[in-house]
Amino acid sequence: xxxxxxxxxxxxxxxxxxxxxxxxxxxxxxxxxxxxxxxxxxxxxxxxxxxxxxxxxxxxxxxxxxxxxxxxxxxxxxxxxx
Length: 82
Hints:
Elements: E1 2-8, E2 11-17, H1 23-34, E3 45-47, E4 51-53, H2 60-65
Antiparallel strand pairs: 1-2, 3-4
């Protein structure tokens, strides 16, 4: 379990990732956050009380590495076990 806090111009938001429930997703989140992937990322869809979507890196060359359409090894994480 790991908590992440993202600081935005509208305030901070903290959320928790449970590795036991989603090891591939939690590892990807952790590594991207550690490497600064989300630094400066804009929120592009906000539905108050429900969801805030973000995660497109502001540097195109960084985003391209994780774009599944570019057929880059590691861009798609495996499905989690049920």
